[in-house]
Amino acid sequence: MSLFSSLFKFGSQNIAIDLGTANTLVYVEGQGVVLNEPSVVAIETINGVKKVKAVGDDAKMMMGKTPDSIEAIRPLRDGVIADIEVAEQMIKYFITKVNGKKSMFNPPEITICVPSGATSVERRAIRDAASNAGASQVYLIVEPMAAAIGAGMPVTEPIGSMVVDIGGGTTEVAVLSLRGLAYTTSVRTGGDKMDEALVSYVRRHHNLLIGETTAERIKKDFGVARPPADGVGQTIQIKGRDLVNGVPKEISINQAQIAEAMAEPISTIVEGVRIALENTAPELAADIVDQGIVLTGGGAMVEGLDAHMRDETGLPVTVAEDPLSCVAIGTGRAMEEPVYRTILQTA
Ligand SMILES: Nc1ncnc2c1ncn2[C@@H]1O[C@H](COP(=O)(O)OP(=O)(O)OP(=O)(O)O)[C@@H](O)[C@H]1O
Ligand SMILES: [Mg+2]
């Protein structure tokens, strides 16, 4: 890039956004992923007037611990925008955070990913949120395509490959070939459902109420997709509130029980993969037998999930490098590299 064009570029670095249910990642042209924060906004209401109090990391710390006047909101549920105004505020905040004030005078082009199963109304909501947040032009890319590009899969070649992106809200299963989606299905089950399953297991079996944040921590640190080899695994202590007498209490739980608690959402995910395999054209299916299935998204990091899926499908299954960043990296590369141009959608 010449000095002139790099100076010119200085004002309007284009950005790519992975607007996730759990985390939002921002990729800046020429720089890569520069921001990765929870998709959470804390709203304070004073005398009936709502004001953004905190966004991202700062807001997540407040979740479950806010006084009555502050509400920590996750504007996305099941991978789509549930609260449009709050989502817009969040996107605006993140854009300003990476681009500073210059985005106001020289608005960037924004490439943003959408779940493959998003309805036209949901796509419109995401597009509007990005343009209201200050984009000069908005491009959309379907999430599993972005995940596959980010995972380094051969999406432009005439080779079938399967990606399974297990996010917070949704799991997207897709078969890709020649820049297109040959088959896609989206299951509204992901990491959040695993957290909820843990909350309800502990409530049912121990009369103990735990928060979503606690459940998520247990899942990340001790969650397993299948019972440990010794039938028990590690035993941990969990603190929460006793449902019978309302006081704080502590119980212990082992990894076999955690696996049991998480079994249902995990089998829903495996079922989605099975349905996709059944619906894949024979030539592409043959490629998948060779190439295997690649897992992306935070949910791919549940211990033993790859091995479990290997057992259930009989196919090679691998976890992508840096599964939490694949979608953002893929969205960014699709924005930057001309070979992916035709994949981007303007409507
Ligand atoms: N080490 C880990 N083990 C298990 N789960 C994890 C781990 N790290 C993150 N997760 C889970 O991954 C999920 C977030 O993944 P990701 O950031 O890919 O989702 P997202 O893109 O925000 O959601 P979606 O794609 O559904 O909109 C959360 O449910 C989180 O708890
Ligand atoms: Mg995602």
Automatic annotation (TrEMBL):
Keywords: ATP-binding, Cell shape, Cytoplasm, Nucleotide-binding. One of its GO terms (cellular component) is cytoplasm. GO terms for molecular function: ATP binding. Its main location: cytoplasm. One of its GO terms (biological process) is regulation of cell shape. InterPro entries: ATPase_NBD, MreB, MreB_MamK-like. It comes from the Bacteria. CDD domains: ASKHA_NBD_MreB-like. It holds the Pfam family MreB_Mbl. It is found in: Cytoplasm. ATP binds at residues 21-23, 168-170, 216-219. Forms polymers. Forms membrane-associated dynamic filaments that are essential for cell shape determination. Acts by regulating cell wall synthesis and cell elongation, and thus cell shape. A feedback loop between cell geometry and MreB localization may maintain elongated cell shape by targeting cell wall growth to regions of negative cell wall curvature. Belongs to the FtsA/MreB family. NCBIfam families: mreB, PRK13927.1. HAMAP family: MreB. This is Cell shape-determining protein MreB. The lineage of its organism: Bacteria, Pseudomonadati, Pseudomonadota, Alphaproteobacteria, Sphingomonadales. The gene is mreB.
